[in-house]
Amino acid sequence: MSAVAREVIADLLARGHAVRFRAGGDSMHPIIRCDDYLLVEPADRARIRRGDVVLTLADRGLTAHRVVAVADGTLITRGDNLHEDDLPVELSRVLGRVTHAERDGRTRRIRRASSVLLTFARVVSRVTAGL
């Protein structure tokens, strides 16, 4: 995605508009796959919770990953298909919440993962990383 596209997406979300764009990468597979269209809505940062999928302005660019921890104005996120957490990101760098993904003309709602599911995913990723 170009720098101009990233700026436009960030600006629209900051102004309170939802955005739709094509995802790149498979870090959120199978929930979100490369070339899915994502609908991202502006989010009240104070209401971001563990399990939400958020769009952040990370050092590597726009990143849609799941929140695994929230503490002291920072988030820890991780792709559902990854074994390690991302570097902490300031809450101020959250642009919005991913609410829907579209693939093959079908739109699916992206829901908050439960704490049980997040804990299970963390255990599985630690076990498989050690193999």
Question: Summarize this, please?
Answer:
The chain has helices at 3-14, 115-129, and strands spanning 19-22, 37-41, 53-58, 61-71, 74-78, 89-90, 94-103, 106-109. Strand 7 (94-103) and strand 8 form a beta hairpin.
Which tags fit this structure?
single chain; 131 residues; alpha+beta; Umud Fragment, subunit A; eight-stranded antiparallel sheet; 8 strands; 21% helix; 36% strand; globular
Question: Overview of this structure, please?
Answer:
- This protein is of the alpha+beta class and 131 residues long.
- It is built from 2 helices and 8 strands, in the order H-E-E-E-E-E-E-E-E-H.
- Strands 1, 2, 3, 4, 5, 6, 7 and 8 form an 8-stranded antiparallel sheet that branches.
- It is globular, with a radius of gyration of 14 Å.
- The chain starts with a helix and ends with a helix.
How do the helices and strands line up, and which of them pair or pack?
Blueprint: H1 3-14, E1 19-22, E2 37-41, E3 53-58, E4 61-71, E5 74-78, E6 89-90, E7 94-103, E8 106-109, H2 115-129
Antiparallel strand pairs: 1-2, 2-7, 3-4, 3-7, 4-5, 5-6, 7-8
In CATH, what is the homologous superfamily? Answer: Umud Fragment, subunit A
Structural class: alpha+beta
Main pleated-sheet profile: 8 strands, antiparallel
Q: What radius of gyration results from the CA coordinates?
A: 14 Å
**Terminus-to-terminus distance:** 34 Å
At CATH level 3, the topology is Umud Fragment, subunit A
Tell me, what's the shape? globular
Strand content: 35-45%
Low-confidence stretches: none
CATH C-level? Mainly Beta
- What is the residue-averaged pLDDT? 88
**Count of helical segments?**
2
CATH architecture: Ribbon
| Number of extended strands | 8
What is the N-to-C order of secondary-structure elements (H for helix, E for strand)?
Answer: HEEEEEEEEH
